[in-house]
């Protein structure tokens, strides 16, 4: 027979186990519980202008587990007096580190004292800034409406933004102003971060065509970043930096980069959006949901027009659009781009069009197929 004190002990143990389980269960299921830093995944989407990074960014942004910020480095570029590349790199790295850790005090250097959420660059593009605890507008598992968010979700201070950041398992930042990888090495070795990089590359000929479409916004951008170089020089610089980053991460890469870098070509993304996105989510430790699957499909196949195409994801048939340069660029220009980007095109897998006929004949595939297994490093 059990002694009564043992029985009481057993009852106490069972009750406390139930209570603990209940607390754990509630914590796991309330969206506003804090997720400790060492359980978080930090993802950097690395790209360059006009490379389809809006699409990739949105695909992460709309994921319910993701706190996403678009180009936080913009604040740095526009605030610093002398935008020399060297000091920028370090400042940008430190800015990103703090944001990954949900420390928004780092914004003190770049924002006025009287700051609102709307002081953050492209804030209303971030679904998390239109959702609780920042704003009641968008439930966390739904897609946000930027227009409504713009109207309803601004408020004073960044406390709510910081609080929101701590409740997500993933912090994703997008940057289009990174031209090398080495300055990020300390972040890979930082035990408080679990950093993964997705490097998005697009055919430089398509980049040029897209740039021509929106020349004003690009010129303003490139003028700061590339210190007033001419357009072929800009493309050359972009191509060179893609190769540099890709090689650093894949050829004799330092051990801390193992499994933390993944390159994706925009063309593969639009040809096979669901598979490619599912693979990228998996790389980041996220799950594809049916809702996201539908959304990605509509975005890449749908026909929603867009008023201001410059910074928005446009929903024309993305796979077709990714080939539009072949009809719209003069062959002479295509040849010049192929010259300045020769190495990048060979390394990343874009074939040169040797004649105007070849360029305009869409049945000639200028994309070198890649095995998806090749992407895993
Ligand atoms: C966003 O909301 C506005 C105002 O209600 C509406 O007109 C617009 O169609 C919505 N946009 C989307 C993409 O749902
Ligand atoms: C910040 O928001 C307040 C209202 O909440 C508004 O009065 C003020 O003008 C805003 N400031 C800026 C810089 O947008
Ligand atoms: C386009 O390329 C395909 C495949 O190389 C070829 O069979 C076809 O004759 C070409 N069409 C024209 C109009 O050159
Ligand atoms: C791609 O994979 C196939 C089989 O899965 C293999 O035969 C082929 O050699 C691979 N190609 C490259 C470029 O690795």
UniProtKB/TrEMBL annotation:
It is a single-pass type II membrane protein. The chain crosses the membrane at residues 7-25. One of its GO terms (molecular function) is N-acetylglucosamine 6-O-sulfotransferase activity. It comes from the Eukaryota. Gene3D superfamilies: P-loop containing nucleotide triphosphate hydrolases (3.40.50.300). Pfam families: Sulfotransfer_3 (PF13469). GO terms for biological process: carbohydrate metabolic process; N-acetylglucosamine metabolic process; sulfur compound metabolic process. GO terms for cellular component: Golgi membrane. It is found in: Golgi apparatus membrane. The keyword Chloroplast does not apply. Keywords: Carbohydrate metabolism, Glycoprotein, Golgi apparatus, Membrane, Signal-anchor, Transferase, Transmembrane, Transmembrane helix. The keyword Metal-binding does not apply. Belongs to the sulfotransferase 1 family. Gal/GlcNAc/GalNAc subfamily. This is Carbohydrate sulfotransferase 6. It comes from Cynoglossus semilaevis.
């Amino acid at each position: 027979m059990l002694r009564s004190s043992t029985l009481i002990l057993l009852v106490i143990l069972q009750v406390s186990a139930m209570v603990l389980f209940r607390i754990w269960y509630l914590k796991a299921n309330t969206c506003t519980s804090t997720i400790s830093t060492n359980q978080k995944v930090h993802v950097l989407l690395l790209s360059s202008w006009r490379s389809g990074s809006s699409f990739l960014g949105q695909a992460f942004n709309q994921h319910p587990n993701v706190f996403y910020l678009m180009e936080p480095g913009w604040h740095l570029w526009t605030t610093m007096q002398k935008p020399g590349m060297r000091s920028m790199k370090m400042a940008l790295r430190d800015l990103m580190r703090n944001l990954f850790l949900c420390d928004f005090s780092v914004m003190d250097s770049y924002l006025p004292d009287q700051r609102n959420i709307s002081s953050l660059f492209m804030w209303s593009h971030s679904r998390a800034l239109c959702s609780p605890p920042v704003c009641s507008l968008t439930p966390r598992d739904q897609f946000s409406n930027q227009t409504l968010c713009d109207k309803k979700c601004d408020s004073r201070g960044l406390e709510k933004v910081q609080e929101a950041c701590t409740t997500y398992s993933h912090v994703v930042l997008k940057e289009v102003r990174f031209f090398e990888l080495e300055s990020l090495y300390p972040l890979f070795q930082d035990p408080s971060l679990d950093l993964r990089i997705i490097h998005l590359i697009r055919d430089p000929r398509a980049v040029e065509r897209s740039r021509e479409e929106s020349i004003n916004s690009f010129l303003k951008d490139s003028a700061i970043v590339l210190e007033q170089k001419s357009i072929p020089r800009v493309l050359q610089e972009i191509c060179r930096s893609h190769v540099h980053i890709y090689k650093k991460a894949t050829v004799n890469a330092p051990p801390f980069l193992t499994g933390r870098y993944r390159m994706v070509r925009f063309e593969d993304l639009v040809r096979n959006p669901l598979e490619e996105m599912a693979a990228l989510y998996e790389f980041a430790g996220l799950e594809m949901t049916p809702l996201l699957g539908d959304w990605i499909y509509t975005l890449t196949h749908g026909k929603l027009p867009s008023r201001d195409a410059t910074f928005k994801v446009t929903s024309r048939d993305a796979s077709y659009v990714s080939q539009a340069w072949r009809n719209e660029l003069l062959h002479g220009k295509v040849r010049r781009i192929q010259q300045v980007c020769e190495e990048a095109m060979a390394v990343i897998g874009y074939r040169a069009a040797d004649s105007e006929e070849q360029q305009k004949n869409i049945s000639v595939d200028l994309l070198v197929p890649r095995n998806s297994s090749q992407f895993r490093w």
